[in-house]
């Protein structure tokens, strides 16, 4: 058995039978025993969808080579273990940027595809899978399949958001977007109610990127942030720095007092209703990447992130109700993010995004009462016609999963029978 492995939330921590590190695309993988395997990128999922306790993990991180680039149209082919950070270091000097990026660049492209990640431009660009032209998939019978919308299309749609269960993705080809400068013209606007947040979202159609911070002290005021890349060459093109502050050990810093203080200070850091700034992309997209292991602030028991989406038509009836149901005086969230998803449909059978409002909210792991509250929230999200994000989950029940992801029956036809995960064993009918 291996040492304990956990994902970003540090909950759960589990042992594996074996952990294999792939270095080259033609390295042998042992599919022959009765033990299942699961691809593992950088473990930046929060819950257990990247864990496979008592079974095997295949770590792809050393498959980190660039394979091909077309500078005319921005199409890049890479090995699946390369990070978004490494892709940016290649793309930016050539005048290109990622088509979609989550709130961290410290993830692999394989992980981005297998969770079909979304970013601040969902309302304009959809999720990562919308920009994937094709990928190579290794199945446990040894077949290596190129999958695209035209070739092996069933496996293409199943593997986008396929949480590592359809096989090992080895190479990925995706489109990028032009960017002349690395600076963003951004605006921050304070809002005092969820209605005002929705109005701001509606009137932000001309902005490529938008996201809001929600004040956890009252769950209806916050700061709406939006922005566009500066398109002309009035600002230079400067890469991010790799320097990070390191948190060496668990600090257990999150408690009702620090949460209240942080949220009060954050809301009052901006005096005016609206402020305009020119911001480097690294601060705009990845403010948390500057602190390595900030998850250690939550202490050794770890934390859960609850991210849900509900359709617009359910927002009036359910949004406040769900938010009230999950927060409590003793365990409120340090950081709460709210955003609208747009109309562009995700390609994956199991993708998370749908048109509506999504909220991501963190909780220090405190045990049974928290789990009970989140189960109740699941019921409300299901009633509202929404779903909870698998990439952030460590606890949803089989019943909740089935109502959130009605495509699971069709999806399960494409699972490779040698692949499994803790998440899948918990939610599927074996
Ligand atoms: C600070 C922070 C901010 C985040 N912000 C966002 C956000 O804004 N939007 C968002 O969508 N997500 C966000 N996330 C979640 C994160 O982007 C996803 O969980 C991402 O998938 C993690 O990638 P990874 O490389 O660490 O993969 P892992 O977490 O290791 O694995 C994720 C899944 O991909 C599978 N997988 C990995 N590599 C392969 C492969 N080569 N072949 C097949 N399957 C594979 C794994 O089996 C697993 O199911 C955030 C995470 C953090 C820590």
Question: Overview of this structure, please?
Answer:
With 430 residues, this protein is an alpha+beta fold. It has 3 domains: 4-61; 72-179, Uridine Diphospho-n-acetylenolpyruvylglucosamine Reductase, domain 3 (2-Layer Sandwich), CATH 3.30.465.10; 183-404, Vanillyl-alcohol Oxidase, Chain A, domain 3 (3-Layer(aba) Sandwich), CATH 3.40.462. It has helices at 84-91, 109-114, 122-125, 153-159, 194-202, 256-268, 281-285, 315-326, 368-383, 398-404, 408-412, 422-427, and strands at 4-6, 13-15, 18-21, 37-40, 56-59, 66-70, 75-79, 96-97, 132-138, 144-147, 168-174, 177-178, 183-191, 209-214, 222-229, 245-246, 274-280, 291-292, 303-310, 336-341, 356-364, 387-388. An 8-stranded antiparallel sheet has the order 17-13-15-14-20-21-19-22. The longest helix has 16 residues, at 368-383. The chain is globular. Flavin-adenine dinucleotide (FAD) is lined by residues 8, 38-45, 49-50, 60, 80, 102-104, 107-108, 110-112, 114-115, 117-119, 163-164, 168-169, 288, 391.
């Amino acid at each position: 058995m291996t040492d304990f492995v956990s994902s970003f939330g540090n909950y759960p921590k589990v042992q594996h039978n074996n952990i294999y590190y792939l270095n080259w695309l033609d390295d042998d993988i042992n599919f022959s025993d009765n033990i299942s395997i699961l691809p593992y990128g950088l473990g930046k999922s929060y819950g257990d969808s990247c864990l496979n306790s008592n079974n095997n993990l295949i770590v792809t991180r050393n498959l980190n080579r660039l394979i091909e680039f077309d500078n005319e149209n921005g199409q890049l082919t890479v090995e699946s273990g390369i990070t978004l950070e490494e892709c940016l270091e290649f793309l930016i000097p050539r005048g290109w940027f990622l088509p979609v990026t989550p709130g961290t660049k410290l993830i692999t492209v394989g992980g981005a595809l297998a969770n079909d990640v979304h970013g601040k431009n969902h309302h304009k660009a959809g999720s990562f899978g919308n920009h994937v032209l094709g990928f190579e998939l290794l199945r446990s019978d040894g077949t290596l399949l190129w999958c695209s919308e035209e070739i092996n299309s069933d496996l293409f749609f199943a593997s986008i958001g396929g949480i590592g269960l359809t096989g090992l993705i080895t190479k990925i080809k995706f489109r990028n977007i032009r960017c002349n400068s690395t600076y963003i013209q951004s605006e921050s606007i304070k809002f005092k109610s969820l209605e005002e947040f929705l109005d701001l979202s509606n009137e932000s159609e001309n902005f490529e990127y938008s996201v809001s911070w929600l004040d956890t002290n009252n769950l209806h005021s916050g700061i709406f942030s939006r922005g566009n890349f500066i398109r002309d060459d009035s600002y230079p093109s400067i890469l991010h720095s790799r320097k990070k502050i390191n948190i060496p050990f668990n600090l257990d810093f999150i408690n009702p007092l620090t949460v209240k203080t942080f949220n009060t200070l954050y809301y009052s850091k901006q005096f005016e209703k609206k402020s305009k700034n020119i911001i480097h992309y690294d601060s705009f997209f990845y403010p948390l990447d500057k602190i390595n292991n900030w998850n250690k602030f939550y202490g050794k028991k770890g934390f859960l992130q609850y991210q849900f989406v509900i359709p617009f038509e359910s927002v009036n009836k359910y949004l406040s109700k769900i938010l009230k149901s999950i927060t409590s005086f003793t365990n409120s969230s340090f950081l709460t993010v709210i955003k609208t998803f747009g109309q562009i449909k995700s390609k994956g059978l199991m993708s998370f995004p749908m048109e509506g409002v999504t909220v991501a909210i963190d909780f220090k792991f405190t045990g049974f009462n928290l789990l009970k509250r989140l189960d109740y929230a699941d019921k409300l999200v299901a009633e509202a016609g929404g779903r909870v994000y698998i990439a952030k989950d460590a606890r949803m029940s089989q019943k909740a999963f089935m109502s959130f992801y009605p495509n699971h029956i069709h999806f399960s036809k494409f699972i490779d029978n040698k692949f499994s995960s803790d998440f899948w064993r918990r939610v599927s009918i074996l």
